[in-house]
Design a protein that fits this description.
With 401 residues, this protein is α/β, with parallel strands linked by helices. Bound molecules: iron/sulfur cluster (SF4) (2 copies).
């Protein structure tokens, strides 16, 4: 059973985010959109497969560019699929917006500033006043009609824009919507090489080749497909399916057409894809088991405190090593939420210590850095990595997580 089928119902986005291959123009915008007939055939086949629980109408595009998005969402509800939409909500007039809310279970909206000046640094071409007006409109619609749609506004924190996050948070809270402060990847103020996006063919050193071989052996040993393959399947507006949501759509990642291929063949071709050998973004589906085991350890604080005490004598100077020795940093979780660490192929923990922590990224599923700092404001004064502080002092002091 997979979780998500992601369908791009258009082939364009109205923005030019500098952290996105679509925004950078590497995936070119066209006027092509999915037809009702094709969409219905895809959803009918998806239902008959019995393999998916959720349909997301997005991947590399802005779904509200399609004038019939509400009709498509309604069609998904015919089979009781859970429906997900992610949008920049920057368009001025979205005729289908209010009606679509009736058929959406989860709507995600991303922003990166409260003022136009800051928002448009990453959301290039975006208009924050349109976003706010649309948010006001949908919160009213939700309230007036008592709609169950869950609306989450994600504030993408790149560091340079963190000072406006509270203004956005208060605005969102006043509307009765959910606010999410997310550390993210691809700081648009940093110069990036387009090579990462342009081609997946690259010169690789013998050391990297050995790392590829080691990854391959590990996957064969464990017989677990990457979670990106076992959890979701991305599709474009023509019904072509692609390797995964972490690689852009292109000839190299195209698997074939959803309607022409058997599901088993699609999955087989994905699992055999050569790009997976060199990908450090790989994550295991049973990662949750590891996370729950950490959480249960957390519930037994005495054991953990003892463990930390023991560690204290081993490493006292180097914060990075201290965290490494705790085994509580989750590299798979971290890479999943910080794609640039995978692109740069750096050690995830080192990336977290030098880049991620500064922009509010979390080291694992259960430790929320920003919440820890908010609940323990004195930690901010020490200018210390919040996770290191928690492991080193917070546990002993019974600090709130
Ligand atoms: S809004 Fe989304 S799809 Fe559009 S350019 Fe930005 S990140 Fe890419
Ligand atoms: S290993 Fe990497 S490229 Fe392959 S499916 Fe997983 S995330 Fe995608």
């Amino acid at each position: 059973m997979l979780d998500y089928l992601y369908i791009d119902i258009v082939d364009a986005c109205n923005l030019r985010c500098q952290s996105c291959p679509r925004g950078l123009g590497i995936m070119k915008n066209t006027n092509n959109i999915i037809s009702s007939d094709l969409f219905e055939k895809i959803i009918d086949k998806t239902y008959s497969l019995g393999m998916f629980k959720r349909i997301g109408l997005y991947n590399w595009t802005e779904p509200y560019l399609h004038p019939e998005i509400d009709v498509f969402l309604q069609y998904c509800k015919k089979y009781n699929f859970e429906t997900w939409v992610s949008s920049n909500l920057s368009l001025k007039n979205i005729p289908a917006l209010k009606n679509s809310l009736k058929y959406i279970d989860y709507l995600y909206v991303s922003t990166s500033g409260f003022s136009q000046e800051v928002h448009s640094i990453n959301h290039k071409g975006g208009n924050i006043e349109n976003v706010k007006n649309n948010l006001v409109g949908i919160s009213e619609e939700k309230r007036l009609n008592n709609l169950p749609v869950n609306i989450h506004v994600r504030y993408l924190n790149f560091g340079y824009n963190s000072s406006e996050s509270e203004l956005m948070r208060d605005f969102i809270k006043n509307l009765g919507l959910n606010y999410q402060f997310d550390g993210t990847m691809g700081d648009p103020t940093e110069q990036r090489s387009l090579d990462d996006f342009v081609t997946y063919e690259m010169d690789i050193t013998e050391r990297e080749r050995e790392r590829e071989r080691e990854r391959e052996r590990e996957r064969e040993r464990e017989q677990i497909p990457c979670g990106a393959i076992s959890d979701h399947l991305p599709m474009d507006h023509e019904g072509n399916v692609f390797l995964c949501c972490h690689t852009r759509n292109c000839e190299e990642t195209k698997i074939g057409n959803f309607l022409d291929m058997s599901f088993n063949n699609i999955q087989k071709r994905r699992m055999e894809h050569y790009l997976c050998r060199r990908c450090s973004f790989y994550y295991r589906k049973n990662n949750n088991i590891a996370i729950s085991s950490f959480i249960s350890k957390m519930q037994s604080k005495n054991t953990l405190t003892q463990k930390i005490r023991n560690m204290f004598f081993i490493i006292t100077k180097n914060q990075e090593e201290f965290i490494r020795q705790s085994n509580l940093f989750d590299p798979i979780f971290y890479i999943k939420h910080n794609y640039d660490a995978a692109i740069d192929n750096t050690d995830p923990l080192h990336h977290y210590m030098t880049i991620g922590a500064k922009r509010g990224s979390n080291p694992n599923e259960w430790f929320d850095s920003n919440r820890y700092l908010a609940r323990n404001p004195d930690v901010q004064d020490y200018c210390m990595n919040p996770f290191y502080h928690y492991l080193r002092y917070g546990i002993k002091e019974n600090r709130d997580l």
